[in-house]
Amino acid sequence: MCKFFKVIFISTVLITNAYSQKQDLKKQPNIIVIMADDMGYADTGFTGATDIKTPNIDKMAQSGVVFSQGYVTHAFCGPSRAGLLSGRYQHRFGFDHNPAYDSNNPYLGISTKETLFPARMQKVGYTTGVIGKWHLGAAYPFNPMNRGFDYFYGFLGG
Predict the structure, then answer these.
(1) Which of 25 and 154 is assigned the larger pLDDT?
(2) Fewer CB atoms inside 10 Å of the end CB: C or N, the chain?
(3) Is the domain of 54 the same as that of 100?
(4) How far apart are CA 11 and CA 153, in angstroms?
(5) DSSP-assigned letters across all residues of 50-96
(6) Exposed, middle or buried by CB within 10 Å (0-12, 13-18, 19+), for 116?
(7) Whether residues 63 and 80 fall in one domain
(8) 57: domain range?
(9) For the chain, how many structural domains are there in total?
(10) Which residues does the annotation mark as catalytic?
(11) Is residue 52 part of a domain?
């Protein structure tokens, strides 16, 4: 199915242990979150697809945790991403749209009053990163590097 190849965004939130080796603390696990837009439930090998080859995703599924009943909170990308990263239903803070790409508009983006998942992870010692499409605002206040990510490689718009 072409849906898999339409995936514009794979937000791979790579979070690694940021504690110094000098600290005598229990090592925290690495956490990777993959979010793919426009991908159906059965569009990977480990969920039954035979027409789409996903060997690396299948290997990760075999050795990691798979959520078999996870649901998005919105029908399209920006709001569902806002819900995932905030941990809140995005309509509660007014993010029910895909923002237009406008790096000069300080109003088109996820509310800066919302504390996002990576910022919470930084507070407990993790280093955070995102790779892929952001689509949560292109102006400076909404930049991933200002929202809790230590590293960003991708594009800001949709």
Answers:
(1) 154
(2) N
(3) no
(4) 10
(5) SSS--HHHHHHHHHS---TT---SSSSHHHHHHHHHHTS-GGGGT--
(6) buried
(7) no
(8) 37-71
(9) 2
(10) 77, 135
(11) yes
CA atoms 117, 123, 126, 128: torsion sign = positive
The pLDDT confidence band at residue 7, using thresholds 50, 70 and 90, is very low
Cβ neighbors of 119 (< 8 A, separation 6 or more) are 147, 148
Q: What are 96-119's pLDDT values in tens digits?
A: 999 999 999 999 999 999 999 999
Q: Which of 28, 54, 71 is the last residue of a domain?
A: 71
In the structure encoding, which two tokens stand for residue 30, read together?
């690495």
Q: Inform me whether the pLDDT recorded for 43 exceeds 60.
A: yes
pLDDT recorded at residue 26: 67
Please indicate whether residue 129 or residue 16 has the higher confidence score (pLDDT).
Answer: 129
What the block records as the tokens of 40 is: 């159906």
